[in-house]
């Protein structure tokens, strides 16, 4: 076994030069041959899916024999060495990507730096590795490849989801995310937010109050008024349009809530902001 040096440095991943968003870099197909790589390190993620044959991945944790239907992940800054079986060389597809979000998503699967291999399941992942051209200059192709990458990872999340991935704070973040995406709906109810998290109502209420210092309904109101302030400052909209845009059909009620939170009516707020610019 090759002596590999450094275990993956999670902190270096979090503070690397990567973009925050999940970002496609390149992809490809490797037919059966004697290609091998390493030992060495990369500063990107590289996900491989084995179509046929066999091979080996070596890390500091040991040697991982691999066969058709299995997947393995190369982590940034982890020293690795991989090579085909001498008698039955593997054929595989691969995709390289980066971004802080990549680490967050992959942490929700069974993949770990100490065990970067996933067993085969009754699904052929090969079609999802078809990214077509490796676009670097044409913006629409890069966006399309990023979308395909997200789709691919979604299947790994479906079939290899880590048990109990949600911690208490994650339920709160999920509830907040739903509010951020749906605050403009006048029909949104607290029960809708509870349904999204799929946890018991009173339990979520306690978690939310502990994490944010306010109730779910109060957070929804605060967020709506925050967005209203942004619209009043940056958009040439009437008070009625702003109210409707943040989930209030009744302009008078919106003005009442706005003043209660900001100490100003929407009109006064616009005037104050106009005088400051």
In words, what does this structure look like?
By secondary structure, the protein is an alpha+beta fold. It folds into two domains: about 10-160, Regulatory protein AraC (Jelly Rolls); about 170-275, Arc Repressor Mutant, subunit A, CATH 1.10.10. It contains ten helices and nine strands. The protein has helices spanning about 10-15, 100-105, 140-160, 170-180, 190-195, 200-210, 215-235, 240-245, 250-260, 265-275; strands spanning about 25-30, 35-40, 45-50, 55-60, 60-65, 70-75, 80-85, 90-100, 115-120. The strands form two sheets. The protein has a five-stranded antiparallel sheet with strand order 1-8-3-6-9. A four-stranded antiparallel sheet has the order 2-7-4-5, with no helix packed on it. Helix 4 crosses helix 5, helix 4 crosses helix 7 and helix 7 (about 215-235) packs across helix 9 (about 250-260).
Number of helices: 10
- The rough form would be described as elongated
Strand order of the largest sheet: 1-8-3-6-9
**What is the share of helical residues?**
40-55%
Order of helices and strands: HEEEEEEEEHEHHHHHHHH
**Uncertain spans:** 2-18
**Estimated share of beta-strand residues:** 15-25%
Q: Cα distance, first to last residue?
A: 67 Å
Care to count the β-strands? 9
List the helices and strands and how they pair.
Blueprint: H1 10-14, E1 23-30, E2 37-40, E3 45-52, E4 54-59, E5 62-67, E6 71-74, E7 80-84, E8 91-98, H2 100-106, E9 117-118, H3 139-159, H4 168-182, H5 190-197, H6 201-212, H7 216-234, H8 239-245, H9 251-262, H10 266-276
Antiparallel strand pairs: 1-8, 2-7, 3-6, 3-8, 4-5, 4-7, 6-9
Helix pairs in contact: 4-5, 4-6, 4-7, 7-9
